[in-house]
Amino acid sequence: MTKPIVSRSIKVACAHCGDSCIDEQLISTNQSFCCVGCQTVYHLLQSNGLSQYYDLENTPGVSLKSIQEEKFAYLDEPEIQTQLLNFTDGKTAKITFYIPNIHCISCIWLLENLHQLEKGIFQSTVNFLKKEVYISFHLPAIKLSQIAALLHRIGYPANINLADIDKEDKPIISKDLYYKIGVTGFIFGNIMFMSFPEYLGLDKTQDAFYFQFFAYFNLVLGLPLIFYSGWDYLHAAFLGLKQKTLNIDVPISIGILSLFGRSLFEIISATGPGYMDSLAGLIFFLLVGKWFQQKTYHSISFERDYQSYFPVAANKIEDEIEIPVSLKKLKTDDKIRIRHQELIPADGILLNGEAYIDYSFVTGESAPVRVQKGDLIYAGGRQNGTSIDIKLTKAVIQSYLVQLWNEHTFEHKNKNQHNSKLANKVGKYFTIAILVIAFATLIYWLPIDSTKAINAFSAVLIIACPCAVALSIPFTFGNVLRILGRNQIFLKSSGVIENIQGVTHIVFDKTGTLTERKEKMNFHGFLSSDEAAMVQSLANQSSHPRSQQIQQYFPEKANLEVSQFRETPGKGIEGLICGSLVSIHKSPQGTAISIDGKRNGYFEHLPILRMGLDKVIRKLQKKYTLSLLSGDRNRHESYFKKLFPNNSELHFDASPSTKLQFIKDLQKKGATVMMIGDGLNDAGALQQADVGLVISEDNNNFSPSCDGVLAATIFNQFNSFMEYIQSSRKVIYLSYGFALLYNIVGLSYAVQGNLSPVIAAILMPLSSISIIILGVMGSWLLSKNLKS
Amino acid sequence: MKIILLLIAISLLVALGFLCAFFWAVNDGQFEDDYTPSIRILFDNKKGNKK
Predict the structure, then answer these.
(1) Quick check: A217 and B33 CB within 8 A?
(2) In this model, does residue A411 exceed pLDDT 60?
(3) Measured between CA atoms, how close is A52 to chain B, in angstroms?
(4) Which ipTM value was assigned to this complex?
(5) Domain hosting residue A114, numbered range
(6) I need a surface site. Which of A437, A461, A589, A670 has the fewest CB within 10 A?
(7) Which of A160, A185, A206 is the last residue of a domain?
(8) Is the Cβ pair B32, A128 closer than 8 Å?
(9) Is A173's CB within 8 Å of B31's CB?
């Protein structure tokens, strides 16, 4: 039975961050604060005339409780600095910081007014979507470390990691595509303009001069369509043919070339106005489709490797002095100091004290590992507790984790997402069908009228251009991508949607995926409030994670005096408080509490399951085979056995490489696998799987490279999202049916040799636009079911 | 009627001007962040610190 031990204090919201002041409540200038950090920031901003920060949004601040102390001295090392700065001429310097905490209007306002806090800062500009701030500052007046420390102090710590060094700044959508759309739009508009006289009945013989003028004008204006805007399609088709495949670019290229060839012939032979208007329209719509498809989530990086987890520098100890040293310069036998919550950058031997290393990043096991002096510590772990010194046995590059990452299996598999698989498949049959019809027309007309035969032949190739097929996927899936994004599922590209549609087997990671990262503690037994204070005070003496958990369990911090404190590694702790011998020790049920030899009860540690987990599993098992892979020891095996259907495989104690192997084996058996995980330990499996999704508890979380990120809060609706993604394929089929109708109409003109440029100029854009509307509307209507 | 040729030339120049403006905008990075400027414009600039 669980009993409330002490009543919680009444909730008061912190004036800075809006959290309720549970642990402590500081009051000054009629405002309440949850911690000293929040109070300091509030007064700092007030005294610098930046109180508008609090007017733009209610309690916009970031709680400073969760922000660890950090040292930034390493930023002033010249070598590191030059690698991080975007630009410097010795006086002015510019730098880009990635700040995950940027979340509201107030954040933008404050970060763009940094110059009011520090004189040396000239200007700062925020990119909200990328969560970046660009700062230009006066190098002699302020150090880089001071800027980093300032950001840290006001609750916006910059995320500086190894991957920032030598990184290229890639624009979100290549500028090239924008240029192409601009040029093509320009050409499209002007050609349409020049074609109007002809649409309205300009006579070829009466106004021969103007007729010729407009035709040549269009032809010249249209040259960049082939050699610039449409070149990618021709090139891709050429490459495809070279590899003996008929991809979707082949029929598009046939369309482009026949449009252009026919126009060239008509204009030079002065027999007609050509089809340059249709050509421009076709390429314009194709490019817009390409742009629409590229919805990207600026603040989420899908391509992370170990470098994104590693800091830029470590504290090397030389003659008892700490010197920040770039990680790349660390060598074997160097001594480094690691503080609480810092990452261990390379394998090494513990030199002093004892460490509790949290390897959950690497192995998925959530309980920290206790390491004693002289033991080996592996890179990728995080120290919990006091600071420790390590003598490196390997350089960063040779460490276990990095080796693991660089193993062949972790190589970036090129999941080719340039072209849609479905479109390529359809494109293949489409090409064959069109060529058959075109040659049939040619053979039919050839004995009757050879000019008409050529006309009809090229007309078939022109009108049957698969613009509808090429447009329906970009617009439909592009819109699905946006709708999912609004619902907190962020996919890397629209190719992922197609991959998800093919999935037959879903593999889950356990810790952090099906359960929350934190464990829940239940107390079974009884403690009076005096006894609770004693247990809390004892637990407070130890840095062991379990003790810390217990200490935090009690809302009231009594912190009584403890004497004769004794810690038995692997067993528990005990001490004398107010004359009673209190002991916290390991027991089969959990962590037991005894006072004066009498057992009061025990703490049970339970995983917190994600909300709606059983529903999601129940629904998913109807369509997919499910599996569970856990890096944890099988602490809660029986529970998960009940949860999962009988045919699913459950594996515990899985290492990163066994997870990877499991996925490989499934794929060998012909399954298309989706892996859902959360940490670095799943990275290999996520890469190997056909679709790798990562669950993230907050968007600032690091996620390993994957195909998509989904917010933990919407996990209970995961099954309906899968259904939605599945059903979006129906929209594509419908669009194809529609395109077929247009083609039948167009072809019926074409095979008779009656296709006039006006009909082509109406029919082609009309089919393109209706396909676009159908795709966007269809995917939107289907998403209406999601909310239920 | 020949005057139409001159008009076409002028209209093309105007259109080219807009194309150049678009190029300039892309080059300037205006399409890279289409969210923050919409917020920034709402701030009261008391001290006129933005260029």
Answers:
(1) no
(2) no
(3) 9
(4) 0.87
(5) 73-160
(6) A670
(7) A160
(8) no
(9) yes
